[in-house]
Amino acid sequence: xxHNPPTFIARVLGRLRAHPHAIRTTEWLRTDPAGRxxxxxxxxxxxxxxxxxLRTHPAGRVVDRISTHxxxxxxxxxxxxxxxxxxxxxxxxxxxxxxxxxxxxxxxGPGTGEPVAAAADAGGGGAPSSTTAPASPGAAVHAEDxxxxxxxxxxxxxxxxxxxxxxxxxxxxxxxxxxxxxxWLWQPEEIEGGDPDRxxxxxxxxxxxxxxxxxxxxxxxxxAQAFLNxxxxxxHAAGIRVYGWDFPYLHDQMADISRSVEAITYxxxxxxxxxxxxPDIETPSEGTALTPQSARAYSEGLRNAVGxxxxxxxxxxxxxxxxxxxxxxxxxxxYYDAIAPMTYWLNRQPDSDVINxxxxxxxxxxxxxxxxxxxxxxxxxxxxxxxxxxEIRRFIAAAEAYGAVGVSFWSWQHATPEIWATIAASEExxxxxxxxxxxxxxxxxxxxxxxxxxxxxxxxxxQWQPETIDALRAFQEAAQLPVTGAVDxxxxxxxxxxxGAPLPGW
Length: 506
Prior knowledge:
By secondary structure, the protein is α/β, with parallel strands linked by helices. It folds into 2 domains: 7-104, no CATH class; 180-455, Glycosidases (TIM Barrel, Alpha-Beta Barrel), CATH 3.20.20. The protein is built from 13 helices and 15 strands. The model is unreliable at 1-151 (pLDDT under 50).
């Protein structure tokens, strides 16, 4: 890559960028699946957008650079020439007195995700040996500017306490998919003493953006009304979305659809509804009458019943090499807005399993939110006891590195205090984390997926790119928020605000 200029030149360039009348230039890199830089994009308010393709030989060293510019056209330059020009420019500016700081209002340009912990090879079962995760296809690596202090996207403004305007609205044209960090509830009476206030408090302490509540099954019907009456108003008041999930056995697809719609349209006495719905389609070994035809009939019928704008997420078995031959992924996935594979690693390794699952499911072009193992896998042939914190950390890190928009865990009642602490400490998808931190690829991807799902189109790439800034600005304007182009506190609060997802005739 390009060599950095000497330190004193870096300081001079840094002073130039800090001048209130200086042109602000921002830059980021795109990489290939092996982590090599293949594209550098630079923008400034006056020069427009410059794209530089970095040609490399197999060893990854830069051998050529091709640039395009909206005015100058195509320019070829070698890295050494660029370095020399930077030095000459810096020396010419040494005597110029520069004052002021142009960076007081938060981020103004594109940035990148930071490195994450290592993930094992998708084909292996051992623990990872590297300390840096390989870049996923389309992921970004952090690119400092010439002085080493370039801007990075922010999850919030440096100014800590900015109130959300009272007249801010949620301008969504579609329902929101789950992003960030979540947890699955099966038997509410078995967790936090069955106290909905304690459930919400623990979710907040762990930085959860959403929870999944079981609403019924083919064998038990829709039974969650009483718990929904308690949890929905409390969770929504805390800014936590609640997604219902159901176990359809597919023996009677019409009955399964009817029960699912009953849960989706249920309104509590306080006027609350669940924020989305997740069918848990299992294999015949769990008693499901699974065929491509039955799974398609249920999924297509459910989508037709709730319309194109209601968020449906499919929970399904992880696509191990064996399951790829047994489960009808192609028949099921097209009807859903996002995919939640049950990535339970049992006696294998968390990072290699999640890498396999994300790689296989990426062919469908939908957001992926893997479900991690937080229970004792010994009865299923796994190692005894719930996974240790290191495995939870590796699962989250690999999910971020390979393109997930969030993670969740099965299940609340089985997770140990150590697992809860690890989830709370993880930064990868913490879009509700502290203000003023540099954004990671997973955090950026979560924001992008959320914007895109509610009708503000942006690539879901993990790169803070112009299309994302445009989508965010459009959202802020429609929400009657200050148009900052940054995920500041008011923007974050409204983005994560629960709301009634659109339904036909509602």
